[in-house]
Write a structure and sequence with these properties.
alpha/beta; Aspartate Aminotransferase, domain 2; Aspartate Aminotransferase, domain 1; 3-stranded antiparallel beta sheet; 12 helices; 15% strand; globular; binds ligand T4K
Amino acid sequence: MHHATPILVTRSSMPPLEEYEAEIASLWESHWLTNMGEKHHQLEQDLRSFLGVDHIALFVNGHSALECVIEAMGLSGKVITTPYSFASTTHAIVRKGLTPVFADIKPDDYTLDPACVERLVDDETCAIMPVHVYGNLCDVDALAEIARRHGLKVIYDAAHAFAVERDGISAAAFGDASMFSFHATKVFNTVEGGAVCFSDPALAPLLEQWKNFGITGTESVEYVGGNAKMNEFCAAMGICNLRHVREEIEKRRHVAERYWERLEGVPGVRLSLPQPGVTPNYAYLPVVFEEGEFGATRDEVYEALMALDIHPRKYFYPLISDYACYEGRFDSALTPVARHVADRVLTLPMYADLSLEDVDWVCDVVLGARR
Ligand code: T4K
C-alpha cells in the first residue's frame, strides 16, 4: 500500500489556526455573531475589490443564493439550463416554482451550447441559467446576445468559477447575476457560504430582504423570505482564506500541469485544458475516457483507483435529467453530448496540497487500468 490515508477528490484549504483565532477574537468583544455584522461587511468589501465588482451579497451557501436571486428577480415561467451540473442548479429552479428546460452542452468545455439554448426559447422562457462548470467559462457573449434578443435574464451558476477571469475581467461581471459557492470543497471557502454578484443596483435591497425573512423594516415584512444569512465565523474564515487564495491557485496550477503532462496525448483521454484568453482557477480535474481508444471504461478506472484508496468522483454523473426525483419529466436522449460526457467523466483528486508524487501515483493507476 502506497499510502496510510486515502486520497480524496479534494481537501479544504484552511488558513493558519493563529490567523483565524486573531480574526475571530473581536467577536468575543462584540458578542455580535450573525445578521450582517462587522466581519460580514469586511468580507463583502474584500470580495468587491478582489473580484472587481460593485455589487455583491453574501449568503449562507451557494444554493440559497441561487434561490434568493430567483426570488429577488421575481421570475416565473421556464428557465433554460444544463443537465450537466450539481443538483443545486436545477433544484433551485424547481424549488422556486419555475420549469427547467435542458439544453445540450458543448463537447469541448462542457458548458451550455448557445445554439441549443436558442432553439429552446419560447414565449414562456424568462431566463437562462448556465453553469461555468469546473471553472470553464461559458460562451458569455453568445448567451448575452440571445438574452438581449429575447428579453431574458442570465443568471450564471458560477459556483466553480471563483477567481476565473477572461482578458482580465472577472467571471463575476457576466450576466445579470452570478452565484459563487464558498463551500468547503471550493477553491475559496468560508466553510459553507456563497455570494451573488449582480449588475442592477436595485437588486441590492431585494437580496438583503429575501435572505432575511422578507423583513423590510423593524415593523414591516413585505416578502415571504427565508433565512440565508452568512454568520460572522464563516465571514471571518473567508477574510483569512482570501488572503491566501492566489497562492492556493498557484499550487493548484502545479498539480494540474503535472496531470496534463502525464495524461495529454494518451489515446482516448480528453482533458479540460485552459480556454484561450481565460485565467483558470484549476477548481477540478475532469478527465473523459473514451473506452474504445483508451482501453478501459470510466467505471473500470474508477474501480482501479478506489481499490487503492484513491477516491475520484463522477462529477457530474448521473445527469440531473436522469435523477430519480425527476423521473418521467425529462428525456436525457435530447442532450446527447451531456449524456456522452456524464457516462465517461471522472474528476481526479485536485487540491493545493496534493503532492506531485501523489499525482504521479494517481496517473500510474489510471494508465495501468488499461486492458
Ligand atoms: N452549483 C454547482 C455547480 C455546484 O457544484 C454546487 C456545489 C452548488 C451549485 C451549490 O453550492 P453550495 O450550496 O454547496 O455552496 C460537494 C459540495 O458539498 C458541493 O458544495 C459542491 N457543489 C459539489 C460539487 O460537491 P458532495 O456531496 O460531493 O461532497 P462530499 O461531502 O462528498 O465531499 C467531497 C470531498 O471533499 C470529500 O471526499 C473530501 C472533501 N471535503 C469535504 C468536506 C465536506 C473536505 O476536504 N472538507 C469538507 O469539509 O458535494
